[in-house]
Amino acid sequence: MMGMFLAERKSWLILIAAQQLLLLLVAFIDPQIGSKPALYIVFLNSLLFIIFLLNRYKSESKFYASLKNWDASLDLNGIAKPVSPFERLVETSLKTQAEQVRTEIEQRSSMLEAEQDELTAWVHEIKTPMTAMQLMIDRIDDEKMKAGLSYEWLRIHLLLDKQLYQKRIANMENDLYMENVDLKRLVFQEIKALRSWCIQKGTGFDIQLAVPEIVTDAKWLAFILRQLITNAIKYSEGKDILIAAERIDGRLHLSVKDCGRGIDPRDLPRIFEKGYTSTDRDHSTGATGLGLYLAQRAAEKLNIRLTVQSGPGQGSTFQLIFPRKNEFQHIQTKR
Question: What is the topology classification, in CATH, of domain 174-334?
Fold first, then answer.
């Protein structure tokens, strides 16, 4: 801080040094003044200037030191009280800008909340015609047409569901409710919702749940499983999908394994990135690159680790590793 202070007052230092050199020059030219008195005056002037400089550094650097250590938040309480007019000017500007930013954040938050409420209301409103459409599809006698319409209906339903959860995930901490979740019931519920797609693709399921239940949020766990199961169905043609649960080292490991074409090693590190789609796997599927990204974000907020093992021609295994029972307190503190 001292270096910055001296650099800021470089012109002062040059002026004082020039004055002292001028005094010595005059004493050298005029013998009547004498060199010893001139040196004495230069010494006193330099001493007084050093004392003055140290005093000014102590009084002026306090404000700017606090400004340097400020964490750039909108809270200005950590900044020292200004003592000079320029410091007060800086403080006034910071307060004005902080107030403007705070107002803009509040406005944007209100707009985002209103947009989320509108979207949520729209999704809930569209469920009525979607339900009516499902009833109409169920009455169709032509099985081939019925299967095709059911599949398209399911695609619309999953896209709406994904959009709704995408808006909710930003405030997910306020939407968590930890409870004992029946894993078997939850898994079969998700499979049942996707049965028309599974029938069309000839995909079956092998369920091996050694652990009957887990403490977590049922709604968000169902959403995560939905993304993993739909991803597995998408790349499984006429092959079974394994859904297994076992406890290892006190942690529940819930895995979804498909026997599809697998993931290219180049794509593996990026499959959880927002909007990322592999051209090798997704060029004909209309993938949005949001499913696994949202699943990863939701898992993180539930303190669940989502991992993947895959290779070309080897299928893919997505695994949810749940926290131990005594680690659920961490989820509560994050809320």
Answer: Heat Shock Protein 90 (3.30.565)
> What gap in Å lies between CA 141 and CA 85, rounded to an integer?
85
Helices (H), 30-142: 35-68, 85-138
- The Cα–Cα gap between 234 and 286 comes to 11
Whether this model's pTM surpasses 0.85? no
Q: Which strands sit side by side in the sheet containing 251-258, from one edge to the other?
A: 205-209, 241-248, 251-258, 316-321, 305-310
**Residue 72: its pLDDT value, please?**
66
> Domain ranges in the chain?
2-99, 174-334
Measured distance CA(253)–CA(29) in Å, rounded: 93
State how far the alpha carbon of 37 is from the alpha carbons of 23, 28, 29, 49, 91, in Å.
Answer: 10, 11, 14, 18, 46
Residue 245 near residue 183 (C-beta atoms within 8 A): yes
Rounded mean pLDDT of the chain? 83
80/62 Cα distance (integer angstroms): 7
How many helices (H) and strands (E) the chain has is answered by 11, 7
Rg, C-alpha atoms of the chain: 35
